[in-house]
């Protein structure tokens, strides 16, 4: 049997086992996917075990960047983003890939029927999620990437890397609290990507002044929150009739791409969606 894992700290909340095991069942594969709690300091011994015993694994917080130095190969996109969420084990070698950006691209297609080519993006936040996805959007022909972040130096560092990655990409940065600039940008944006961690908790505020989202933006603007739950920004967008979607399809599609990388088979998206929503009923322990 081929064994797969998702590792992280925390990882108990992960719905990847339900999703991936549904795909294995759909294709009648002799394979099993589980989750395992791995601390930051445990990554090196885990990888030695993985080389011997696993067919592949996913990584979540805090391992996506830290794993890179231990890998034998890494795709150019994952190397540029400094983020790996999918590792394939082949002949004891560890091959790293990043599927978060693919997940976002296909979530936009699924939710809004629009791709990234020629589009203007405004990211709120520039942590791991923004970083992993922005390089993919750049690769897929985005015209402009604007980044608004609380810590402006981090936005500046990511912007410099994006400009080096694609010289003709237009990249601008702002403090997330600069309302005048955000208002100006929002009137000239196709996709607002909420990639801060604000919204994970019930009492979280919106990362920007709610008044900046107005009905007049609805003809062009689409709001995507990377968080998979109902968040303040999604509620505000709905109140202004701005098309908006949460992070579920991004999670489904990043997992679907991992499945295809590992197996070479087409991901059964409907089965994976059902597995994602139902959880892994065969799983005994978190
Ligand atoms: P991260 O690396 O910790 O980055 C967090 C970001 O949020 C940073 O830009 C940080 O700004 C900002 N932030 C945090 N608290 C804030 C506050 N009070 N006000 C303004 N900005 C604040 O986290 P991450 O890994 O990028 O994850 C971000 C979100 O993406 C999470 O909610 C996660 O659930 C989601 N995500 C979704 C998917 C999916 O498939 N749907 C995949 C990955 C992640 P500073 O730089 O100033 O600290």
Major beta sheet, strand line-up = 2-1-3-5-6-4
Mean pLDDT: 95
* Topology, number of strands: 12
Find the CATH topology of the largest domain.
Rossmann fold
Tell me the radius of gyration. Answer: 19 Å
Encode the helix/strand succession as letters: EHEHEHEHEEHEHEHEHEEHEHH
Q: Structural class, please?
A: alpha/beta
Number of structural domains: 2
Contiguous low-pLDDT stretches (5 residues minimum) are none
Please, how many helices? Answer: 11
Distance between the termini: 20 Å
Shape, principal axes of CA atoms: globular
Helix content bin: 25-40%
CATH top level label of the largest domain: Alpha Beta
Quote the beta fraction: 15-25%
The CATH architecture of the largest domain would be 3-Layer(aba) Sandwich
Q: List all distinct small molecules, including ions and cofactors, that are bound in this structure.
A: NADP nicotinamide-adenine-dinucleotide phosphate
């Amino acid at each position: 049997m081929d064994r797969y894992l998702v590792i992280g700290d925390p990882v108990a909340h992960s719905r990847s086992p339900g999703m991936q095991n549904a795909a294995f069942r759909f294709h009648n594969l002799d394979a099993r996917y589980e989750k395992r709690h791995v601390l930051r300091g445990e990554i090196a011994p885990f990888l030695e075990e993985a080389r011997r015993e696993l067919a592949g694994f996913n990584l979540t917080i805090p391992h996506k960047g830290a794993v890179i130095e231990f890998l034998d190969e890494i795709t150019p996109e994952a190397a540029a983003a400094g983020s790996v969420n999918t590792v394939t084990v082949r002949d004891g070698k560890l091959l790293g890939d990043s599927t978060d950006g693919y997940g976002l691209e296909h979530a936009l297609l699924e939710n809004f029927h629009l791709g990234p080519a020629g589009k203007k993006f405004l990211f709120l936040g520039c942590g791991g999620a923004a970083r992993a996805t922005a390089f993919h959007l750049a690769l897929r022909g985005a015209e402009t990437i604007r980044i608004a972040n609380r810590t402006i130096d981090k936005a500046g560092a990511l912007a410099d890397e994006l400009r080096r990655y694609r010289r003709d990409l237009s990249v601008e940065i702002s403090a997330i609290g600069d309302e005048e600039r955000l208002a100006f940008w929002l009137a000239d944006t196709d996709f607002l990507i909420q990639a801060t961690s604000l919204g994970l908790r019930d009492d979280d505020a919106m990362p920007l002044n709610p008044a900046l989202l107005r009905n007049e933006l609805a003809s062009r603007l689409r709001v995507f929150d990377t968080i998979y739950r109902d968040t303040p920004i999604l509620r505000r967008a709905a109140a202004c009739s701005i098309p908006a979607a949460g992070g579920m399809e991004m999670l489904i599609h990043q997992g679907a791409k991992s499945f295809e990388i590992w197996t070479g088979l087409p991901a059964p998206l409907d089965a994976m969606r059902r597995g994602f929503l139902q959880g892994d009923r065969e799983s005994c322990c978190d």
